[in-house]
Design brief:
TIM Barrel; single chain; 8-stranded parallel β-barrel; binds 3-methyl-2-oxobutanoic acid; alpha/beta; elongated; 8 strands
Length: 273
Amino acid sequence: MTLGAPAIRARKRRHGDAPLVMVTAYDEPGARYVAAAGIDMILVGDSLANVVLGQENTLHVTIDDMCHHVRAVAAAKPDAHIVADMPWLSYHVDLGDSVRNAAALVRSGANSVKLEGGRVRREVVRALLDAEIPVMGHLGLTPQSVMMFGGFKVQAKTHEAAKLLMEDAQLLQELGVFALVLEGVPSVVGKRVTDALEIPTIGIGAGPDTDGQVLVFHDLLGLGNRAPAKFVRQYADLGSQITAAIGRFAQDVRSGSFPDESEAYANPEGLFD
Ligand code: KIV
Protein backbone atom coordinates (compact mmCIF):
# COMPACT_ATOMS: atom_id res chain seq x y z
CA MET A 1 0.00 0.00 0.00
CA THR A 2 1.35 3.42 -0.92
CA LEU A 3 2.40 5.34 2.19
CA GLY A 4 0.92 8.81 2.66
CA ALA A 5 2.93 11.66 4.19
CA PRO A 6 1.49 11.09 7.74
CA ALA A 7 2.49 7.40 7.67
CA ILE A 8 6.01 8.33 6.57
CA ARG A 9 6.16 11.05 9.21
CA ALA A 10 5.50 8.47 11.92
CA ARG A 11 8.40 6.20 10.88
CA LYS A 12 11.37 6.35 13.26
CA ARG A 13 13.96 3.63 13.72
CA ARG A 14 14.11 4.35 17.45
CA HIS A 15 10.41 3.33 17.63
CA GLY A 16 11.37 -0.02 16.12
CA ASP A 17 10.22 0.91 12.60
CA ALA A 18 12.03 -0.44 9.55
CA PRO A 19 14.32 2.06 7.80
CA LEU A 20 12.69 3.99 4.95
CA VAL A 21 13.95 3.22 1.45
CA MET A 22 13.84 5.85 -1.28
CA VAL A 23 15.25 5.56 -4.81
CA THR A 24 15.09 8.09 -7.63
CA ALA A 25 13.29 7.46 -10.92
CA TYR A 26 12.65 9.71 -13.87
CA ASP A 27 10.52 7.70 -16.29
CA GLU A 28 7.93 4.93 -16.53
CA PRO A 29 10.28 1.92 -16.81
CA GLY A 30 12.49 3.21 -14.01
CA ALA A 31 9.49 3.74 -11.73
CA ARG A 32 8.15 0.27 -12.58
CA TYR A 33 11.44 -1.49 -11.74
CA VAL A 34 11.97 0.52 -8.57
CA ALA A 35 8.42 -0.04 -7.31
CA ALA A 36 8.57 -3.77 -8.09
CA ALA A 37 11.52 -3.97 -5.66
CA GLY A 38 9.17 -2.88 -2.87
CA ILE A 39 10.71 0.45 -1.90
CA ASP A 40 8.75 3.02 0.15
CA MET A 41 9.29 6.21 -1.85
CA ILE A 42 10.28 7.21 -5.37
CA LEU A 43 12.04 10.55 -5.64
CA VAL A 44 11.72 12.29 -8.98
CA GLY A 45 14.88 14.19 -8.21
CA ASP A 46 16.28 17.23 -9.94
CA SER A 47 19.34 14.96 -10.29
CA LEU A 48 17.44 14.44 -13.56
CA ALA A 49 19.78 17.21 -14.78
CA ASN A 50 22.93 15.18 -14.07
CA VAL A 51 21.99 11.58 -14.72
CA VAL A 52 19.45 11.90 -17.54
CA LEU A 53 20.15 15.22 -19.25
CA GLY A 54 23.95 15.13 -18.94
CA GLN A 55 24.29 18.51 -17.21
CA GLU A 56 26.99 19.46 -14.69
CA ASN A 57 24.57 20.40 -11.90
CA THR A 58 20.88 20.55 -11.01
CA LEU A 59 20.49 24.24 -11.86
CA HIS A 60 19.56 23.28 -15.42
CA VAL A 61 16.10 21.79 -14.89
CA THR A 62 12.86 23.76 -14.88
CA ILE A 63 9.45 23.13 -13.38
CA ASP A 64 8.22 22.04 -16.84
CA ASP A 65 11.03 19.47 -17.06
CA MET A 66 10.13 18.16 -13.61
CA CYS A 67 6.39 17.93 -14.39
CA HIS A 68 7.18 16.04 -17.61
CA HIS A 69 9.16 13.41 -15.68
CA VAL A 70 6.76 13.22 -12.73
CA ARG A 71 3.99 12.41 -15.25
CA ALA A 72 6.14 9.61 -16.72
CA VAL A 73 6.86 8.16 -13.26
CA ALA A 74 3.20 8.41 -12.22
CA ALA A 75 2.19 6.61 -15.44
CA ALA A 76 3.77 3.46 -13.96
CA LYS A 77 1.15 3.68 -11.16
CA PRO A 78 3.86 2.65 -8.70
CA ASP A 79 2.87 1.30 -5.31
CA ALA A 80 5.16 3.87 -3.68
CA HIS A 81 4.92 7.45 -2.45
CA ILE A 82 6.12 9.82 -5.20
CA VAL A 83 8.17 12.79 -3.99
CA ALA A 84 8.92 15.46 -6.61
CA ASP A 85 11.84 17.85 -6.32
CA MET A 86 11.06 21.53 -6.69
CA PRO A 87 13.82 22.72 -9.04
CA TRP A 88 15.99 25.76 -8.57
CA LEU A 89 14.11 29.08 -8.91
CA SER A 90 10.70 27.40 -8.78
CA TYR A 91 10.36 28.44 -5.10
CA HIS A 92 12.85 31.26 -4.63
CA VAL A 93 11.12 34.28 -6.16
CA ASP A 94 7.43 34.62 -5.38
CA LEU A 95 5.27 32.74 -2.87
CA GLY A 96 2.25 32.54 -5.19
CA ASP A 97 4.37 31.13 -8.01
CA SER A 98 5.96 28.66 -5.57
CA VAL A 99 2.55 27.29 -4.58
CA ARG A 100 1.45 27.11 -8.24
CA ASN A 101 4.68 25.28 -9.14
CA ALA A 102 4.23 22.76 -6.32
CA ALA A 103 0.60 22.28 -7.38
CA ALA A 104 1.75 21.58 -10.94
CA LEU A 105 3.97 18.77 -9.58
CA VAL A 106 1.02 17.38 -7.57
CA ARG A 107 -1.25 17.55 -10.64
CA SER A 108 1.46 15.69 -12.58
CA GLY A 109 1.24 12.85 -10.04
CA ALA A 110 3.43 13.70 -7.03
CA ASN A 111 2.25 12.86 -3.50
CA SER A 112 4.56 15.46 -1.98
CA VAL A 113 7.31 17.90 -2.91
CA LYS A 114 10.88 18.32 -1.68
CA LEU A 115 12.77 21.58 -1.43
CA GLU A 116 16.24 22.54 -0.27
CA GLY A 117 17.22 24.86 2.56
CA GLY A 118 16.35 25.79 6.12
CA ARG A 119 15.54 29.16 7.70
CA VAL A 120 15.71 31.07 4.40
CA ARG A 121 12.87 28.88 3.08
CA ARG A 122 10.55 29.19 6.09
CA GLU A 123 7.94 31.36 4.26
CA VAL A 124 7.70 29.09 1.26
CA VAL A 125 7.43 25.96 3.42
CA ARG A 126 4.55 27.64 5.32
CA ALA A 127 2.84 28.67 2.07
CA LEU A 128 3.01 25.14 0.62
CA LEU A 129 1.71 23.57 3.82
CA ASP A 130 -1.10 26.17 3.94
CA ALA A 131 -2.00 24.97 0.43
CA GLU A 132 -2.22 21.40 1.82
CA ILE A 133 0.89 20.19 -0.03
CA PRO A 134 3.14 17.86 2.04
CA VAL A 135 6.76 19.06 2.08
CA MET A 136 9.97 17.06 2.55
CA GLY A 137 12.99 19.12 3.63
CA HIS A 138 16.59 18.76 2.40
CA LEU A 139 19.65 20.04 4.31
CA GLY A 140 23.43 19.61 4.17
CA LEU A 141 25.09 19.39 0.76
CA THR A 142 22.09 20.83 -1.06
CA PRO A 143 23.08 20.63 -4.76
CA GLN A 144 21.12 23.77 -5.75
CA SER A 145 23.58 25.75 -3.56
CA VAL A 146 26.63 24.45 -5.44
CA MET A 147 27.74 27.92 -6.52
CA MET A 148 27.47 29.30 -2.97
CA PHE A 149 29.33 26.26 -1.59
CA GLY A 150 32.06 26.61 -4.26
CA GLY A 151 31.58 22.99 -5.36
CA PHE A 152 30.06 19.75 -4.08
CA LYS A 153 31.61 19.80 -0.61
CA VAL A 154 30.67 17.93 2.54
CA GLN A 155 28.78 20.35 4.82
CA ALA A 156 28.46 20.85 8.59
CA LYS A 157 32.13 20.07 9.23
CA THR A 158 32.61 22.75 11.89
CA HIS A 159 30.83 23.05 15.23
CA GLU A 160 29.18 26.31 14.14
CA ALA A 161 27.98 24.91 10.79
CA ALA A 162 26.66 21.74 12.45
CA LYS A 163 24.79 23.88 15.02
CA LEU A 164 23.17 25.96 12.26
CA LEU A 165 22.14 22.80 10.41
CA MET A 166 20.61 21.36 13.59
CA GLU A 167 18.66 24.58 14.15
CA ASP A 168 17.42 24.48 10.55
CA ALA A 169 16.32 20.86 11.01
CA GLN A 170 14.38 21.77 14.18
CA LEU A 171 12.78 24.73 12.41
CA LEU A 172 11.68 22.61 9.44
CA GLN A 173 10.15 20.09 11.83
CA GLU A 174 8.31 22.88 13.69
CA LEU A 175 7.02 24.27 10.40
CA GLY A 176 5.57 20.84 9.58
CA VAL A 177 7.75 19.05 7.02
CA PHE A 178 7.02 15.31 7.14
CA ALA A 179 10.59 14.06 6.58
CA LEU A 180 14.07 15.46 6.04
CA VAL A 181 16.78 14.46 3.57
CA LEU A 182 20.29 14.91 4.97
CA GLU A 183 22.95 14.93 2.28
CA GLY A 184 26.74 15.03 2.45
CA VAL A 185 27.34 15.56 6.18
CA PRO A 186 29.58 13.73 8.69
CA SER A 187 27.93 10.62 10.17
CA VAL A 188 27.89 12.17 13.64
CA VAL A 189 25.77 15.05 12.30
CA GLY A 190 23.40 12.54 10.65
CA LYS A 191 23.04 10.79 14.01
CA ARG A 192 22.63 13.96 16.09
CA VAL A 193 19.91 15.35 13.81
CA THR A 194 18.13 12.00 13.67
CA ASP A 195 18.20 11.66 17.46
CA ALA A 196 16.94 15.22 17.94
CA LEU A 197 13.97 15.02 15.56
CA GLU A 198 10.57 13.33 15.76
CA ILE A 199 10.26 13.27 11.96
CA PRO A 200 12.31 10.71 10.00
CA THR A 201 15.62 11.62 8.40
CA ILE A 202 16.63 10.10 5.08
CA GLY A 203 20.35 10.07 4.47
CA ILE A 204 22.53 10.21 1.38
CA GLY A 205 26.14 10.42 2.45
CA ALA A 206 24.99 11.07 6.04
CA GLY A 207 26.14 7.82 7.66
CA PRO A 208 24.32 4.75 8.96
CA ASP A 209 22.13 6.27 11.69
CA THR A 210 19.44 8.10 9.73
CA ASP A 211 15.88 6.73 9.61
CA GLY A 212 16.19 5.85 5.95
CA GLN A 213 18.50 6.00 2.96
CA VAL A 214 18.14 7.31 -0.58
CA LEU A 215 20.31 6.60 -3.62
CA VAL A 216 20.17 7.77 -7.21
CA PHE A 217 18.95 5.04 -9.63
CA HIS A 218 21.88 5.48 -12.06
CA ASP A 219 24.50 5.35 -9.27
CA LEU A 220 23.03 2.25 -7.68
CA LEU A 221 22.84 0.39 -11.01
CA GLY A 222 26.14 1.43 -12.58
CA LEU A 223 24.63 3.67 -15.25
CA GLY A 224 26.51 6.85 -14.36
CA ASN A 225 29.00 8.69 -16.57
CA ARG A 226 31.53 9.36 -13.82
CA ALA A 227 33.09 7.64 -10.81
CA PRO A 228 30.43 7.31 -8.10
CA ALA A 229 30.70 9.41 -4.94
CA LYS A 230 32.15 7.85 -1.77
CA PHE A 231 28.70 7.22 -0.27
CA VAL A 232 27.38 5.20 -3.24
CA ARG A 233 27.13 1.43 -3.07
CA GLN A 234 26.79 0.10 -6.62
CA TYR A 235 24.57 -3.00 -6.76
CA ALA A 236 24.85 -3.77 -10.48
CA ASP A 237 26.88 -2.85 -13.53
CA LEU A 238 24.03 -2.42 -15.98
CA GLY A 239 26.02 0.03 -18.11
CA SER A 240 28.40 -2.69 -19.32
CA GLN A 241 25.54 -5.18 -19.72
CA ILE A 242 23.68 -2.70 -21.95
CA THR A 243 26.76 -2.05 -24.08
CA ALA A 244 27.43 -5.79 -24.42
CA ALA A 245 23.81 -6.55 -25.41
CA ILE A 246 23.75 -3.78 -28.02
CA GLY A 247 27.13 -4.92 -29.30
CA ARG A 248 25.67 -8.42 -29.86
CA PHE A 249 22.72 -6.91 -31.75
CA ALA A 250 25.07 -4.89 -33.97
CA GLN A 251 27.14 -8.02 -34.65
CA ASP A 252 24.02 -10.04 -35.60
CA VAL A 253 22.78 -7.32 -37.96
CA ARG A 254 26.18 -7.03 -39.63
CA SER A 255 26.58 -10.79 -40.00
CA GLY A 256 23.05 -11.15 -41.41
CA SER A 257 21.93 -13.49 -38.63
CA PHE A 258 19.27 -11.04 -37.44
CA PRO A 259 16.41 -11.29 -38.12
CA ASP A 260 15.87 -14.99 -38.79
CA GLU A 261 12.64 -16.59 -39.97
CA SER A 262 11.13 -16.83 -36.49
CA GLU A 263 11.55 -13.05 -36.12
CA ALA A 264 9.79 -12.18 -39.41
CA TYR A 265 6.08 -12.21 -40.38
CA ALA A 266 4.82 -15.09 -42.52
CA ASN A 267 4.38 -14.37 -46.24
CA PRO A 268 0.70 -14.54 -47.35
CA GLU A 269 0.34 -17.09 -50.14
CA GLY A 270 0.26 -15.63 -53.65
CA LEU A 271 0.85 -12.07 -52.44
CA PHE A 272 2.75 -11.03 -55.58
CA ASP A 273 1.14 -13.42 -58.09
O1 KIV B 1 17.76 15.05 -6.85
C1 KIV B 1 18.09 14.08 -6.15
O2 KIV B 1 18.35 12.97 -6.62
C2 KIV B 1 18.16 14.29 -4.70
C3 KIV B 1 18.79 13.22 -3.88
C4 KIV B 1 20.26 13.29 -4.04
C5 KIV B 1 18.37 13.28 -2.47
O3 KIV B 1 17.74 15.30 -4.23
